[in-house]
Specification:
123 residues; SCP2_sterol-bd_dom_sf; alpha+beta; five-stranded mixed β-sheet; Nonspecific Lipid-transfer Protein, Chain A; Alpha-amylase-like; 5 helices; single chain
């Protein structure tokens, strides 16, 4: 079941290119944090696919973070992650509604905004 194609997969692929761009390099300098994002197709905590968004190195990798502890870990359902990443759902509202779960540093989590994601033309 964990091999399910997620809508988020495309966004993470686009993010790799975004972080290599000048705008992405600015983000890396400005934020300098490591996020692990767990995406579940149906229910948070079940059959999650993990991605690491490393805004220290400017990299996106699939799998759990292997370099110690990430600054913050987020868990989302696939659809809710897309809404937050595209700016259709406010991250604070997602958290209050239970659509996003956070572990780790709350100050690091507050820097996790839709601004860190590329603006897709069409999804």
């Amino acid at each position: 079941m964990a091999n399910t194609e997620l809508k988020s997969d495309n966004l993470f692929e686009m993010m790799k290119g975004h972080l290599a761009s000048d705008a992405g390099k600015e983000l890396t300098k400005k934020i300098g944090l490591v996020y692990q994002i767990n995406i579940a197709s149906k229910k948070i905590g079940i059959d999650e696919v993990s991605y690491v968004v490393d805004l220290k190195k400017g990299e996106v990798t699939k799998g759990k973070y292997g370099g110690g502890k990430p600054d913050a870990i987020f868990s989302f359902k696939d659809d809710d992650f897309i809404k937050v990443a595209t700016g259709k759902m406010n991250p604070q509202m997602a958290f209050m509604r239970g659509a996003m779960k956070i572990k780790g540093s709350l100050s690091a989590a507050q820097k996790f905004t839709p601004d860190i994601f590329p603006k897709p033309a069409k999804m």
